[in-house]
Amino acid sequence: MSDERRPDYREVNFDGLVGPTHNYAGLALGNVASMSHGGLVANPKEAALQGLAKMKALMEAGYLQGVLPPQQRPDLGALRALGFTGSDERVLARAAGEAPQLLRAVCSASSMWTANAATVTPSVDAPDGRLHLTPANLQSSFHRFLEPATTGRVLQAIFRDESRFALHPALPATPAFSDEGAANHTRLAGDHGEPGVHLYVYGREAFGWGGESSPAPKRFPARQTREASQAVARQHGLADHQVVFAQQHPEAIDAGVFHNDVISVGNGPVLLYHEMAFLDEAGTLEALRERMHSPLIPVRVPVEAVSLEDAVGSYLFNSQLLSNPDGTMTLVVPGECQENESVWRTLQDHLLAGANPIGEVVVKDVKQSMRNGGGPACLRLRVVLGAEERAALAGRVLLDDALHDELTAWVERHYRDRLAPEELADPALARESLTALDELSRLLEIGSVYPFQREGA
């Protein structure tokens, strides 16, 4: 593509709607918040309304906001594939009695964290001038491995114009190509319409390319592989001068940084990161500077200001960094940042008072998501689109006041305000979920994207 800036390009944050089976099952190894809150009683209605409130606030502030639907849960097809037979009621009862962790997995509402849904390359960067998307295979955990098939159908339903959008297949679901999506990917550019540089962060090398093995975490697994990141970049047609591959610091992974978006966030020319984000901090910054068309603006938070423990506990770096038309930036942080003295002091004294474009910090309550290990950045998939591409989106997925009100009413009608892990076997919950999702697919005008809608079709 040309080096010319395209002023009609804007970032759309597609947030995942929290599903009716939102619960605290403690399924995610390495996700400290998820592990520590396992077994608590959840409030699906509150979780969904908190997410919608964040979306509406950003929409009203002038940011483009989209929505993506939740997955079909419980996934009874997955249980049947694992040998549970009989009626839906029988399958749920057997799973609850014989394999309760499997039942919890097939009920997970983890698709709400759409930063893991896919990796996106905007058309301004792609050699064929189309937007490229690759659904993440999420093979590192069973409950998330169940998502890519439906994610692909949802993305196909929305980005269906093949002259403008290219949807690639998920990578092979093997440990060598473990792909966790945009949670380990950041696009940096002077503005959204300028050709960008893509920072892919990985935790391990599957094949040991590059000679000696890199340091590895000792406590928790490294999820993203270098090989997966390289494969996605190839799928999207990105050249060497457009990409930087950086290894995540293994000490950060062991501290609970299971994805890079728990320890760094970037937007436009700004990269906000913790000192322990990258194994080779200096080399990563140098590579970005060499490739970017506009000057990189690194904003480094030293460990003396915010410890790894506080970074993970507050999700400071799992905040949304949003670009404003006047060149300033807004940082949307979870309420936990305000509750942590060192983090809040760093926000005020180091970020807002520093020589960088971050001029505003906005606090949002997403506590239901945070207890499962997902902050504001986890809840959104960033998609940079030109005006014609935005007009070409199918379905009714760009948020406006009317859609927000309809989605809020939909949640109020269908969601429970209490859900404990032992209630996941309730057949009524499964029926409630299907009814809600059938109505939602019509509301969003995305067609039959769910397995139960396609059976016998």
Report what the structure shows:
β7, α8 (226-235) and β8 (243-247) form a beta-alpha-beta unit. This protein has a single domain, classed as L-arginine/glycine Amidinotransferase, Chain A (5-stranded Propeller), CATH 3.75.10. Strands 2-1-15 form a three-stranded mixed β-sheet. By secondary structure, it is of the alpha/beta class. The two termini are 41 Å apart. 35% of the residues lie in helices and 17% in strands.
In short:
With 457 residues, the chain is an alpha/beta fold. Helices cover 35% and strands 17% of the residues.
Helix count, DSSP H or I runs of 4 or more residues: 18
Q: What are the segments in which pLDDT stays under 50 over at least 5 consecutive residues?
A: 28-35
Q: Assembly type of the shown chains?
A: single chain
The assigned CATH architecture is: 5-stranded Propeller
Helices and strands, with pairings:
Blueprint: E1 10-16, H1 32-37, H2 44-60, E2 64-68, H3 76-81, H4 88-98, H5 100-106, E3 118-121, E4 131-135, H6 142-145, H7 148-158, E5 165-167, E6 185-188, E7 197-202, H8 226-235, E8 243-247, H9 250-254, E9 264-267, E10 270-274, H10 281-291, E11 297-301, H11 308-314, E12 320-323, E13 329-334, H12 335-339, H13 341-352, E14 358-364, H14 367-370, E15 380-385, H15 387-392, H16 401-414, H17 427-444, H18 451-454
Notable characteristics:
L-arginine/glycine Amidinotransferase, Chain A; three-stranded mixed β-sheet; 18 helices; single chain; 457 residues; alpha/beta; 17% strand; globular
